[in-house]
Structures are given as structure tokens and as C-alpha cells.
Amino acid sequence: MEPTNQELAEFSAASREAARLGGEVLLKWLGKITVREKGFRDLVTQADFESQSVIRDFLTQEFPRHRFVGEESQPAEGIRPASDFCWIVDPLDGTTNFVHELRSFSVSVALCKHDSAIVGTVLDPVLAECYAAIRGQGATLNNQPIRTSNCNQIAKSLFVVSFARGTKRDDPDVTRFLNVLEQAGSTRRLGSAALNLCFVACGRVDGYWATSLSKWDVAAGWLIATEAGATLADFTGAPLTLERPHFCITATPELFAQAKPLLEV
Description:
By secondary structure, the chain is α+β, with helices and mostly antiparallel strands. It has helices spanning 5-29, 46-62, 95-99, 172-183, 193-202, 215-227, 253-263; strands at residues 35-39, 42-45, 67-70, 85-93, 106-113, 116-124, 129-134, 139-141, 144-145, 158-162, 186-188, 207-210, 231-233, 247-250.
């Protein structure tokens, strides 16, 4: 059974409150962090853990039958209890920016049913910008409707990209970057996948591609961007799933068609 509009509204309000609580933690820890490495060039901070903890505590209290998966979760957290609904959370997207006090990071909270997001919120706590969407009901920024840009020429576009940690010069993503760099108006690497998707949604950037992300990076942002009118697809032709977020997203179908051959390497 699909959730009612009232239930969707309740889920959306909860996602926004959860993101707000996580954002408060990040602002508290900004400039006062303890850092360690999860893996090669993969930083994690006390802020990540505390942000996820307050989000998890809030959501599991509000919805005790829903599953919860976060970037800093232990595997068992996403297994119980049995439910069609699962909260997918990145408590701090843009950890490297956060560690260096570069004020471009976010909290991402999505509710998925059968691996498809039905509610999503991405919060930039520094700018107090809250992006949100409900499936089939459009996307907003601080409660005001947003749409993608109408850019349909790659020569006039601004593209952003996410690179994997430890990318080498002979990696296909470097070739993709150079291909786009030669054709696009401008390119950027900004550091928060969730915000990149929201920037496409509100027209601040025109396109974004990535091959190295996880579902918690994109679950909320994909919904927000597509509800704002973005074109989203796997540029290799493979099925697009949250478990394999290998994608390009653009403001318009025309721009996607121009970017796709540049990424097929």
C-alpha cells in the first residue's frame, strides 16, 4: 500500500527535523573536530558520529518500525526490523570540507520504500538552506518551489563532478573530466554530492556526474533534483539504482545528450 498524502507530509516534516538536528551538531563541532581515517583518504569525525546518532534516535523514536541505514552505521542497523520503509542518511556529506573548515557540507536524509526515495531533505546548515522533495509533489528550497536551469548547450553550462578518493591520472574519470573540461563552459569539484544534486535542482549548476558514490550520498538529492525537473540516467546504459549510483544528471534532456558521449570512456 502506498503512503497517503498525509503520511508523506509527516515523513517529510520528520526528515526536515532530523536534518535540522544533525545540522546543529555539525555547527557545534565546526572548528573543534577530532579526525581519524576510515580508509585511504577517507576521513571521519566525531561530528559524523554524533550527527548520525541524534538523527537515528529521532527517526527511530518517531517511526520504530522503519529501518535505518546511515553512512556510519553498523551493518546490522539496516537489517531489523522488517519494513518496506528505510531511512537512508548521510550525517555529514562533505567531511573533508568540514575538516578544513571549508563551509560547504550538508546533512542528507531520505525515506525510501522498496529502494526508491519517496521523501528527501538536504540541509546546508551554514547557509540555513533546506532543500526538500516529496515524490510526485515537486521540490523546494526553504519552502519555495525550485526548478532546474533551462541550459541546453554544453558550451554555456557549469558542470560539477565527484572523484573517488585516491583517483589516479589514468583513471577513466580523469579522461571524462578532461572531455567535459574541453566542452563545458566551466567545471567544478565542490565536495558534497548531496549539495551538487541540489544545485542542479535549483539551477545553480547545469550538470553533475559521478561514479564513486554510495546510496546515502544521493538518495535524497536524486529525488530533489528529479522533482525539480532534472534528467537523470546512467550514462553507460546500465539500470540506475541506489546500490550503484553511477550517473549523470543535467538540467535538460538536450544537455544530457551532449554530455553523454563525453562520459562514455
